[in-house]
Description:
The chain is an alpha/beta fold. It has 8 helices and 11 strands. The chain has helices at residues 16-28, 39-48, 65-75, 90-98, 111-123, 158-169, 177-185, 195-207; strands at 8-12, 32-36, 53-56, 81-85, 103-106, 132-135, 138-141, 146-149, 152-155, 213-216, 220-223. Strands 2-1-3-4-5 form a 5-stranded parallel beta sheet, sandwiched between helices. It has a 4-stranded antiparallel beta sheet with strand order 6-7-8-9, with helices on one face. A two-stranded antiparallel sheet has the order 10-11. The longest helix is centred in the first third of the chain and has 13 residues, at 16-28. It starts with 7 loop residues before the first strand and ends with a strand. The model has no long low-confidence stretch (mean pLDDT 86).
Amino acid sequence: MVAAAGMRILVTEDEPRILSFLARGLEAEGFAVDSAADGAEALRCVGGAHYDLVVLDLLLPHVNGLTVLSELRRTQPELPVVILSARADLATKLRSFALGANDYVPKPFSLDELLARVRVHLRRGQTDEAATLSAGRVVLDLARRQARIGDTACDLSDREFRLLHHLLLHPGEVISRERLLAEVWGYGFDPGSNVVEVCVGRLRKKLGPESPIQTVRNAGYRLAA
């Protein structure tokens, strides 16, 4: 499992709402994120800073995504590029792969799927050293996807893992259910759902009586530091 700490991702997307959503979701995973709203800005960013991965839209103003991709492959052939585009036709996908794209995610998209693909491409060429994230008595094993309090360890589902991971990144901070829905469950998830409450309940049960997850009435949830 690749630890996100110290890894920088460039997100190039001309739709402000999607760009903001992607940046928040990646930052919630511990990545440092830079944003570019058009292709020319993306090329300037890559020319002036080091990135571990680029998320690239294709329908961009000024310089289109395929041109950006071609230039990236010419100047930084080892830099992973994940295409995120509303263009889902086979011809465009094949053209993108021919130009050197590492992956292609069509819109509308699941943030969970995009994050999983990002992790895969960052993991390639890296070691599989175990990494942990901790706050207070809780230790989260990122490789085994296990939580541990003292001598007690428990396996977590994907949602439980991502929820606890998010809380551990913000110890002591009150996180609203709306923010958790957006950053853990993903773009476009039904805001009227009770999935946050259900997942918190399961996670508390697994962590046992010493669970540090607190409910802050009418505000959200907090991990006691």
